[in-house]
């Protein structure tokens, strides 16, 4: 399997659609990394290599893109490695394709059991990006993947702490090291990649190298939080759009959602901004309280607001059995006051592959991330972005601006009694 993937990656001839995806991913990822400049974790990340530091920066504020079928943050690994090694769009796409296919083979069961698929699949993908940048042949790329196997770990227990972004950075660095070892002539049994995949619950037989470079495309986040929160935030905003709801008058909030969609949402009573990015309860609270959703709305002070904590305590999550991925089924949010309720349901949030971000949505996100920096958007190119990251990652945090979050959904306002939750999460 490693040799088959390596031959595909080494011989990849990107299509126009592949290259368009690579350009969008570059712009999105570099802008998000710039927005993280000055974050405390980057001082710690100085112990990592260049690729690792940049990967940490692009992941720490949880604003990076996501490959839905593999539940991996592909670009947060593959863009920084491509930039650090001078690989460009083709190297990025080769690694992204390997990461997507390995993650799809590992499947939802791997993620739902607690692994952080971005780092398990990411270390091997980083080895491919760096190997293509170095000009390794198929044998060298296969050996690089095998040499990255010892670093292919990471668990969801790290979510809400510095360890989450740092384990992504370590995966990126490990791939660069593995490619360097392969280039130096290190031997490896490439069958180790299949053994690794099986041990983690994957099936080598389902790895398919046909189709576009990144099968299924990538989801772009509109809100700076875990992807599992993009849909409930949008649904809550739709539930109260055009009506006046006093947060102090809210008595109960129901969130009906498939059980699979809350897998990474492990912080039910968050105490800081990092935990708030993995809290379903805080997501619906901020969607009700805040007109915009930028960086301040997911900061420590915002999470600790008394009015936010009150709403967090009013959330009942009704878990349903209807699928096994982050956008399974639909989410339905019901806001109860003393006299009426408002509700909305939603399947695909803005930015998902089914509803790609518009030019304006992506432009507004990039502008938010670059606000307060000295980086013009047109400097984010494959040739210039490494220098952008060199120049900016030691500066202060940006001033937040508005992020567009409009989305189509079904919403209703009704007068009804509260409905008891069938199952509380």
Which descriptors apply to this entry?
425 residues; alpha+beta; 2-methylcitrate dehydratase PrpD; 60s Ribosomal Protein L30, Chain: A; 17 helices; 5 strands; 47% helix; 8% strand; MmgE/PrpD_sf_1; 2-methylcitrate dehydratase; MmgE_PrpD
Helical coverage, percent range: 40-55%
Which second-level CATH architecture of the largest domain applies?
Orthogonal Bundle
Please name the fourth-level CATH homologous superfamily of the largest domain. 2-methylcitrate dehydratase PrpD
Our Rg estimate from Cα atoms comes to 21 Å
Which structural class do you get from the secondary structure elements?
A: alpha+beta
Mean pLDDT: 91
Number of helices: 17
Task: Give a description of the structure.
This protein is of the alpha+beta class. It is 47% helix and 8% strand. It has a five-stranded mixed β-sheet. Helix 2 (16-35) packs across helix 4, helix 2 (16-35) crosses helix 5 (74-85) and helix 6 packs antiparallel against helix 7 (117-134). The longest helix is centred in the first third of the chain and has 25 residues, at 88-112. It is globular and about 70 Å long. The model is unreliable at 395-425 (pLDDT under 50).
Offer a concise description of the structure.
Residues 223-372 form the MmgE/PrpD C-terminal domain. The protein is an alpha+beta fold and 425 residues long.
